[in-house]
């Protein structure tokens, strides 16, 4: 009999992350999602460029519009992928095998989170040529991409963590996706209110407290109004807090509450 | 030498429902223990507790010498094939094996080698680069067994490994189970509801009923404990039936004789239960010596199946 | 050379403007004219026209505001003048007697159809006096059918095509494996 000499890999989250990335991208789902994303951004850019050609949109506004959509949809992709991480494995019957591996649950959670986050990164990378095209000549491309990348990263971490958290506790994958999408819509709803409703101290507080609206406001100020980075930095408070808080929550939840439910894997 | 698996008073509750109650047993290294029980007996729950997927509500256990308070270490030393587990459809068998080898601590290069060897061992070498989506059920079970062996485990838990397989597939899997114990020296816990599998492969059996241990021991010990009378069903040439009945009536220990339903010349003989094998052997010897052509002879009763039914029906 | 008297100059000037066909109204000593009264262009194109404000009075005039207006000659076409030109109002410096100022108006054709553009000059103070308008410039905008608006077509088709090819390639590769 051979003695077991294997030890738990120190950074097993990288092994899990690599596998999840392979499954997401080489399995085809990631590329299809980013293809759909690129079609959306292409349509938007075409319309934006047409409107700008007709002087309906100023150049900075057209860059801002494209960037905002890219950040929002990129975060949505991360949320949708994350909502499948645990509940999807549970439904497909593959969670049990993963839980039997001698790796800490926290590492398992981190690896899966990283793969979900990669969709946001890919979406933003695809956005770069569009932003460059729309913003060339007025010196805003660099600031737009930098601010968009930073805010996009914060929102992606927040929403990927939120989706994973929901997935850990959801009874089924359908419940996980439904709850995650509902929460996202609730976060986006204030952007559809008339501008009058967003005035006043309560309106401003809600805008600042909502990480999505706060982040998009910050990017808008830099791209459209040409503000400096530090001028509206307080608007970044809720995206930073949300990203940190939910990342911590999912680490705790993944470590303690990622279990087989009774009757799973059947 | 310490036991490969030891459980002491293990209890598992799901809310008010008692899934496993007072599970106490031990398995010596190298044994193949069959875990038998009707549906809902608690077999899968017991395995999930012992493999650290579920925390016990009470009691203690140790696997491969590691106490239950160190679940990561237990998982490092065991291999598990869960019941009806799923597989990632978009990956190949080779990729799946490499991934799990790495999760168990293999470096990249050795994971490739281990994956190739194990897939060859279970007969999947020629399909290692095919997507798992294209694997049959039998192939998936073999893949699962290969995955359970990726860390050279000391104890292997197999939960219904032949479920849904055709007879050829079942034979293949059982042959693998024997090889695991024989060639690797691993202790195997085989959970199944197929008595024939246990009789064929296992040295010991644990019968669970309604979450409790109903019987534990070697197959013959457990069968004997049921004290079911041993009977035989035989067929002689139809023209020799009367002669056969006469010979058997005079054989020692034969309590009851009767013509049986079925093909002409079928008889049943029941012994008095004091010497289950001996009297039947003597009866058969006398039939042969008198020149009665015996077309078939089959012992029934006091089989594991009878013990199983007796213990689980009694509740 | 004999110097002509101012009235003669004004008359000759008015006749000259009439000859050009761009003469406008004359009121309170001010005359507004344009360099052309008909423009044809295509949707999205930028164009320019000039208007000249002449102070025909004997004293300087100050505090004038020149304002550009655009309207559709067909009912049902919404026109937002801000979309046509972002600089539609000029606050003029004082114009000495007999002098003139020429304003250049830059516009972009953002609607297709038939439109009229005119310049109105009004005093900053003294609302009792009505504004003076220049001649109407008739603008005809042809609808331009082009797919490659803003030159985006290579980008908006190229990126999805690249990703589609990549996705297809990965799928084929996985199947053959």
Write the layout of secondary structure elements.
The complex is a heterotrimer of chains A (266), B (315) and C (177).
Chain A: H1 12-26, H2 29-53, H3 59-83, H4 87-92, H5 95-99, H6 105-135, H7 141-169, H8 173-188, H9 200-209, H10 211-223, H11 237-257
Chain B: E1 5-14, E2 17-27, E3 32-36, H1 43-50, E4 58-63, E5 66-67, H2 71-77, E6 78-81, H3 93-103, H4 108-121, H5 137-148, E7 155-159, H6 167-184, E8 187-192, H7 195-201, E9 204-209, E10 212-218, H8 219-225, E11 231-236, H9 241-250, E12 254-259, E13 266-271, H10 278-289, E14 294-300, H11 304-314
Parallel strand pairs in B: 3-8, 3-9, 6-7, 7-8
Antiparallel strand pairs in B: 1-2, 1-4, 4-5, 9-10, 11-13, 11-14, 12-13
Chain C: H1 6-20, E1 26-27, E2 30-34, E3 38-42, E4 46-55, E5 64-72, H2 81-84, E6 89-91, E7 100-108, E8 113-123, E9 132-133, E10 137-142, H3 153-176
Parallel strand pairs in C: 3-10
Antiparallel strand pairs in C: 1-2, 2-4, 4-7, 5-6, 5-8, 8-9, 8-10
Could you explain the architecture of this structure?
The complex is a heterotrimer of chains A (266), B (315) and C (177). By secondary structure, chain A is mainly α. Chain A has one domain. Chain A has helices spanning 12-26, 29-53, 59-83, 87-92, 95-99, 105-135, 141-169, 173-188, 200-209, 211-223, 237-257. In chain A, helix 7 packs parallel to helix 11 (237-257). Chain A is globular, with a radius of gyration of 20 Å. Residues 262-266 of chain A have low confidence and may be disordered. With 315 residues, chain B is of the alpha/beta class. Chain B folds into two domains: 5-86 and 142-225, P-loop containing nucleotide triphosphate hydrolases (Rossmann fold, 3-Layer(aba) Sandwich), CATH 3.40.50.300; 231-314, 2-Layer Sandwich (Alpha-Beta Plaits). In chain B, helix 4 crosses helix 5 and helix 8 crosses helix 11. The longest helix of chain B has 18 residues, at 167-184. Chain B is globular, with a radius of gyration of 24 Å. Helices cover 24% and strands 35% of the residues of chain C. Chain C is built from three helices and ten strands. Chain C folds into two domains: 6-145, Immunoglobulins (Immunoglobulin-like, Sandwich), CATH 2.60.40; 147-177.
Please name the defining characteristics of this protein.
heterotrimer, A: 266 residues, mainly alpha, 74% helix, globular, disordered C terminus, C: 177 residues, alpha+beta, Immunoglobulin-like, 2 domains, six-stranded mixed sheet, 3 helices, 10 strands, disordered N terminus
């Amino acid at each position: 009999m051979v003695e077991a000499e294997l030890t738990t890999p120190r950074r097993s989250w990288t092994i899990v992350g690599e596998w999840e990335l392979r499954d997401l991208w080489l399995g085809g789902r990631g590329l299809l999602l980013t293809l759909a994303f690129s079609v959306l951004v292409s349509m938007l850019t075409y319309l934006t460029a047409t409107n700008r050609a007709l002087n309906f949109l100023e150049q900075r506004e057209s860059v801002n519009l494209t960037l905002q959509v890219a950040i929002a949809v990129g975060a949505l992709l991360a949320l949708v992928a994350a909502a499948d991480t645990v509940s999807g494995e549970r439904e497909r019957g593959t969670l049990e095998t993963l839980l039997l591996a001698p790796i800490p649950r926290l590492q398992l959670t981190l690896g899966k989170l990283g793969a979900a986050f990669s969709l946001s990164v890919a979406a933003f990378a695809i956005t770069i040529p569009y932003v460059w095209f729309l913003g060339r000549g007025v010196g805003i491309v660099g600031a737009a991409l930098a601010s968009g990348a930073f805010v996009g990263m914060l929102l992606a971490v927040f929403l990927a963590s939120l989706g994973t958290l929901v997935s850990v506790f959801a009874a089924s994958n359908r419940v996980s996706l439904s709850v995650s999408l509902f929460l996202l819509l609730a976060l986006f709803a204030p952007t559809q209110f008339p501008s009058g409703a967003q005035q006043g101290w309560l309106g401003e507080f809600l805008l600042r407290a909502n990480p999505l609206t706060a982040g998009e406001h910050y990017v808008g100020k830099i791209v459209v109004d040409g503000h400096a980075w530090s001028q509206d930095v307080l608007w970044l408070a809720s995206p930073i807090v949300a990203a940190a808080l939910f990342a911590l929550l999912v680490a705790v939840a993944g470590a303690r509450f990622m279990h087989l439910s009774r009757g799973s894997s059947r | 030498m310490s036991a490969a698996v030891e459980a002491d008073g293990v209890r598992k509750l799901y809310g008010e429902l008692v899934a496993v109650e007072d599970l106490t047993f031990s398995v010596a290294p190298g044994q193949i223990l069959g875990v038998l029980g009707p549906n809902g007996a608690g077999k899968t729950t017991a395995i999930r507790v012992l493999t650290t997927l579920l925390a016990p509500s009470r009691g203690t256990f140790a696997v491969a010498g590691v106490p239950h308070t160190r679940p990561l270490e237990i998982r490092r030393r065991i291999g598990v094939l869960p019941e009806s587990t799923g597989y990632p459809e978009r990956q190949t068998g080779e990729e799946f094996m490499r991934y799990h080898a790495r999760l168990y601590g293999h470096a990249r290069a050795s994971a490739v080698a281990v994956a190739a060897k194990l897939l060859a061992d279970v007969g999947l070498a020629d399909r290692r680069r095919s997507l798992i989506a294209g694997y049959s059920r039998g192939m998936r079970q073999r893949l699962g067994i290969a995955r359970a062996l990726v860390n050279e485990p000391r104890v292997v838990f197999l939960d219904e490994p032949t479920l849904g397989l055709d007879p050829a597939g079942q034979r293949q899997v059982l042959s693998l189970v024997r090889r695991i114990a024989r060639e690797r020296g691993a202790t195997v816990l085989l959970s199944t509801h197929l008595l024939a599998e246990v009789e064929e492969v296992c040295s010991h059996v644990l019968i669970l009923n309604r979450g409790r241990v109903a019987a534990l021991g070697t197959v013959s010990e457990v069968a004997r404990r049921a004290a079911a009378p041993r009977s035989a069903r035989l067929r002689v040439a139809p023209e020799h039936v009367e002669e056969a009945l006469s010979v058997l009536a005079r054989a020692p220990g034969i309590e009851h004789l009767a013509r049986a339903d079925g093909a002409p010349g079928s008889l049943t003989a029941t012994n008095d239960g004091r010497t289950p094998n001996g009297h039947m052997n003597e009866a058969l010897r006398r039939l042969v010596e008198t020149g009665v052509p015996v077309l078939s002879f089959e012992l029934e009763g006091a089989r594991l199946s009878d013990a199983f039914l007796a213990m689980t029906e009694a509740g | 050379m004999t110097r002509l008297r101012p009235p003669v100059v004004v008359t000759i000037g008015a006749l000259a403007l009439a000859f050009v066909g761009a003469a406008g109204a004359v009121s309170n000593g001010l005359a507004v004219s344009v360099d052309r009264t008909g423009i044809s262009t295509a949707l999205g194109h930028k164009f320019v026209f000039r208007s000249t404000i002449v102070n025909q009075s004997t004293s300087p005039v100050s505090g004038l505001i020149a304002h550009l207006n655009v309207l559709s000659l067909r009912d049902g076409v919404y026109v937002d003048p801000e979309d046509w030109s972002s600089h539609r109002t000029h606050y003029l410096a004082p114009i000495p007697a007999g002098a003139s100022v020429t304003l250049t108006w830059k516009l972009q054709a953002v609607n297709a159809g038939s439109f009229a553009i005119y310049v109105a000059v009004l005093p900053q103070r003294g609302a009792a006096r009505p504004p003076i308008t220049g001649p109407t410039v008739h603008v005809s905008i042809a609808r331009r059918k082009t797919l490659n608006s803003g030159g985006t077509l290579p980008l908006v088709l190229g990126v999805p095509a690249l990703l589609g090819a990549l996705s297809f390639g990965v799928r084929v590769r996985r199947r053959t494996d």
